[in-house]
Amino acid sequence: MNNKIFKTLVAFSLLLVFAGCQSINVSLKTEVKSVPSSFNGSADSANTSNQKRQDFFQDPFLIALIDSALNNNQELNILLQEIQMANNEVMAKKGAYLPSVGVGAGASLDKVGRYTSTGASEANTEIVPGRAMPDPVPNFGVGAFAEWEVDIWNKLRNSKKATTMRYLSTVEGKNFMVTHLVAEIANAYYELLAFDKELLIVQQNIQIQTNALEIVKLQKEAARVTELAVRKFEAQLLYTQSLQYEIQQKIVESENQINFLVGRFPQTIERTQQEFNDLPIPIIQVGTPEQLLSNRPDILRAELNLNAAKLDVKSARANFYPSLRLESIIGLQAFNPVYWAKAPESILFSLMGGLMGPVINRNEIKALYYSSNSKQIQAVYEYQKTILNAYIDVVNQVAKVNNLEKSYALKLEQVKVLTESIQIANDLFKFARANYIEVLMTQRDALESRFDLVETKKQQLLAVVNTYRALGGGWR
């Protein structure tokens, strides 16, 4: 009889395994990691992204702002809590494939009819000579119990690994946010310095235009110009004076943008007093495109999510196979706790195992399997899109750095020419060799050229910072 039962169980187990093996196979998509051999034809592997932010940025005020932001930025702190939650998920998955063990105690009271088979047998049972079974019968027990799903197909283990991959991807997500936060603060800081320079230019032009207005007034008294010329110079001066308040408002907003990123209430931003146009432009070394795969946190995050999706497919496939569950309990049980000390009579134990697998209705498992595979394909495309975006980002920023360098040299020459033209125009105007319109136009062109020069310098600094970010620098 026992041999027949054993053979039946073996046959049933083989049936479940065979049924699981009939699961529908899907074709997994493989990612392509190939990238161009270089960004600009250079094979130099030196890469600026390997520089720590303290070495890349030479301004101590900017470094202090970045360090403060990394400690106090609200969005970054929110993301850190998401990382902690992901870590908690890993802890939960670790316990999923380990036995679940607990202890407990309980009590019950049973009363059965006297004229039943159970009641009649209990009436004739004596635990202590001369004393019948208690009626009603109490029952007291204490013990430990355990249950365990044996991970014979690595379903739980793969699920745990996938969760670990996603936890690591949140860490890379934090690193990616750090690179953007560092770049955002640096960009805002350089914009603030540019506004300071623009304000200084406006104030200098106000002085120049005030002197020019006095000259025009003297020319009018000498009947060499009309009241119209005086009014034109006054209007130009008023316009320039109004510009300084617009720039002052931009300075306030730029300072508060930095304060927000740093996670503090509005206050004055300490900054360098170095001449803005003399600020050094860091040299950028882009290295090779292949280095992006290990330097850019967003690529690392996409790769980890892809690996997690692959493990999800394996875990979903294991649902087609039978699962083995074991349950056991051991403890002490008696109608009076006094008898717990009488072993082995009071000892209670149980051991049970079960093998279960889908045979008929497997649509839910199929749907989960198909969805997991689609997510894996989606993760492949996301990974390749991230690599493509990173490569194009670097190419754009490098081209911008090079073009702005050439543009700045030309604009610097333009400023020199127009600055000299102001004095020339004023001298010609004094001797009636030029009219006031030419003087006003020269002043306006010179002011715009100086603004353009500051803007180009600012764009140079931002382009270098954004190239550093695009290469994956700033998070180390």
Please render the helix and strand layout as text:
Blueprint: H1 2-21, H2 53-56, H3 60-72, H4 74-96, E1 100-110, H5 117-123, E2 126-128, E3 131-132, E4 137-150, H6 155-221, H7 227-262, H8 292-295, H9 297-317, E5 323-334, E6 347-356, H10 363-430, H11 436-470
Antiparallel strand pairs: 1-4, 2-3, 4-5, 5-6
Helix pairs in contact: 3-6, 4-6, 6-7, 6-9, 6-11, 9-10, 10-11
CATH topology of the largest domain: Outer membrane efflux proteins (OEP)
Biggest sheet details? 4 strands, antiparallel
In percent, how much strand structure appears in the residues?
Answer: 5-15%
CATH superfamily of the largest domain: Outer membrane efflux proteins (OEP)
Oligomerization category of the chains in this entry: single chain
Note down, in words, how this protein is organized.
By secondary structure, the protein is α+β, with helices and mostly antiparallel strands. It has eleven helices and six strands. The mean pLDDT is 85. The longest helix has 68 residues, at 363-430. β2 and β3 (131-132) form a beta hairpin. It has two domains: 26-97 and 153-321 and 364-470, Up-down Bundle (Outer membrane efflux proteins (OEP)); 99-150 and 323-356, Outer membrane efflux proteins (OEP). It has helices at residues 2-21, 53-56, 60-72, 74-96, 117-123, 155-221, 227-262, 292-295, 297-317, 363-430, 436-470; strands at residues 100-110, 126-128, 131-132, 137-150, 323-334, 347-356. The strands form two sheets. The chain has a four-stranded antiparallel β-sheet with strand order 1-4-5-6, with no helix packed on it.
